[in-house]
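Hi there,

I know you've been waiting on this one. I reran it after we fixed the sequence typo, so this is the corrected version. Both the input and the resulting structure follow.
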Amino acid sequence: MKRREFITLVGGAVAAMPVAASAQQAMPLIGVLHSQSPDGYDSRLRAFRQSVRDAGYAEGENVAIEYRWAENQMDRLPALAAELVRRKAAVIVAISPAAALAAKAATTTIPVVFAVAGDPVQFGLVASLARPGGNATGFAWAEYSIGGKWLEMLKEIAPRVTRAAVLRDAALAVGTGQFGAIQSVAPSFGVELTPVGVRDAEEIERGITAFAQGTNGGLIMTGSTAATIHRELIIALAARHRLPAVYFGRYFVTGGGLISYAPDYIDLFRRPASYVDRILKGEKPSELPVQNPTKYELVINLKTARTLGLTVPPTLLARADEVIE
């Protein structure tokens, strides 16, 4: 190559570098912050990425997505959130209340869209559901009234139950609210309730073991991060003590639990993309109302039912969205 041609080539490359860097910088970054690990979240993440594509964004072309996982170590969330802030994310999608709180604490300017949040008002994420204020909005995980439905289903699948241990985090509004909904209908079903805390594995095992000393018992698992972390223990204790149980998430049932009735988690991961799109187009999170779930799913594990000696009523099977054989 001649000297003149070489200088021209190098000069052209140098001149192009700022343009390329500018184009890369102009591509908005979506940061996804999760309190758990990516294990078992493949289908949900696919749903989120697909909904981003459906909104008109091609990953690597006109948008970038980066994930940060706390691996169930909540103390890592602030540093992970701060990292996304340093990366100048255009919006942070926070999965779980703890992730949302960490993101909101890390920035007052970058929009935060939360998903699977129990009570956003109690957590201090928003001022109200209708008008969130601040830089956060998103999608609540559950309504309190679902608690009454859980007790109804427990009696339907296990009619002999006259006592129910309700596992709940008393520090969460979701835990107390759903427990209150169960209390309101318990007399009509002739069921006596026993609250059990879920702060740690020891409290869970002690509470369920003590409750199981009686007869005709069952379990109802209300929503909390602690219950999700200790789900394998809870499922194992229910099996050991032969307690029919109703859970707040499908993954309890795929892990060996009896039955769950809960918001469709795939849908919960799909919906945040709509708010990400609106925010990237200029809308403010303070003016986007928090939305409640719109799709629910009933999942039944027939193998577990047979192990417990239960016959699932045909009417309940007919309503199931998924039956695990």
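Quick highlight: Residues 3-26 form the longest helix (24 residues).

Best,
R. S.
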